[in-house]
Amino acid sequence: MALTLPQNIALPGRLTARPSLLAAATVLLVCVPTGDKDVTAAVHVTAADLASLALVGTMALGLLRGRLPALNRTVCVLFGAVVCSAGVATVHSIDPMASVTGFVRLVQVFVLVPAAVLCSLRDRRDQQLVLGSLVLAALVQGVVGAKQFLTGTGASYTGQPIRAIGTFGALDIMAMSTVVCFGLLAALALALGERGPGGNRRLRIGCWAAAGFLVFPLAVSFSRGSWIACAAAAAVVLLRADARLALRGAVLAAALGLVLVGGLGLGGSGVTNRLSSIGAVSDTPDQSVTDRYDLWGTAGRIWQDHPVTGAGPKAFQQLRDSHAPLRLSSGSDAADSQIGFTREPLLSPHNMYFLVLSEQGLIGVLAYLALFLTLLVNCLLRVGDSATKGLSPVGGTARSPTVDGPRLAALGLLVWVLVDFLYADIGGTTTVLTSVILGLAARTALPGPNAGEAKQT
Asked: Which H or E run contains 371?
């Protein structure tokens, strides 16, 4: 028997008409400073988490009342597989009680919030709203990060307080570069989507300007992982939009880098040294790279002991010392003006795929890879479809875009996440943004038969 809710249970009218506002709020609230709180704690609830839970609740009520279209069957199967794999791993965990919090977090990040974002994106304008919030959040963090570098008030890097960290603090050192990357890729894709005779010239110029500015704070974040993921995602976006434009973009990026780093000297030595260290990771890697390799090996040894269902969510940190080599560091250094100097323990393998393998086994890896690859392949196939079908903007006139901006942005953001997962995993203030990206990608990859056609009552 179908479960329905009484029609006199009312939600705020604005949220009912445009629930993507909550998704956008989730993105923007990531910028709220958390002070010196430990973002790696087992239970750490941020303002963005609360907004995402409000979005989940709003979408759940909408589905129960029949005001939203049913989820695509494939989406349900993929999300259901992730829930089942996490549940099985929790039941067979070495410490089921400790794994419960990990199970809840996994379901929130990879199922509930992405599904809620997917349901909230009813039309093109909803997608633009969420993507616009990513750009705005990136600009806020970029301005703060650029100021930190220029005034020497950031986190410590090579003994100097010049590393751009935005409003997040040294305990969440990767957060600012993550937000900036998301905004840069969203702005780039939206700018490319506005090319053509029917494009919005002001929006195109604004997005190009935003993307160009965000290159600088990304550079002075000194985050090698973010650089690599952003370069890969930007290459996919440009190649999918226009191969010739991709070549011109590579030349322009190189020229811009020479001007900023070589000509103006902005972060020159730090950026150059950091770039050169990327090529040295297989020859003479620094301690952070060596530790990462050791953590990957540790995750592999844990998986060998628990091959099918894994050791259970949150089990890696319990089993790390018994499986890690003696040379593994006790933690990574962090320092800024607020927290002083501290060492953060290495509680994860810094690779999402190895984390899933060690904690959820082969069942978990298959479930996550099925989700990620399905989204990636379908995003690649659907980007550009709108151009051939003569898509029109909401409330606008017919246009002839070279590619659909929101779909292209979803593809680029998804590529960033999947590449970043090669040397990072979930954790920290910006984790909820990963959920938003997966929801955007799911809307592009698997829109369903009634996408954008919410039932009116």
From this structure: helix 352-382
CA distance 284 to 224: 16
134-153 pLDDT per residue, tens: 999 999 999 999 999 999 98
Using left for φ > 0, alpha for ψ between -120 and 50, and beta otherwise, residue 240 falls in alpha
Beta-carbon count within 10 A of 23 CB:
30
Give the Cβ contact number of residue 173 at 10 Å: 22
Which has the closest alpha carbon to 291: 250, 351, 203?
351
Residue 392: per-residue pLDDT: 43
Question: What pLDDT is recorded for position 257?
Answer: 58
Mean pLDDT, residues 411-416 taken together: 97
Whole-number Å distance between alpha carbons of 25 and 248 = 35
163 DSSP 8-state letter: E
- Are residues 317 and 358 in contact, defined by beta-carbon separation less than 8 angstroms? no
The CA-based dihedral angle spanning residues 20, 140, 227, 49, taken in that order and rounded to the nearest 10 degrees? -40
Q: Which two tokens stand for residue 372?
A: 């990620």
Sequence-distant (≥ 6) Cβ neighbours of residue 72 within 8 angstroms:
446, 447, 448, 449
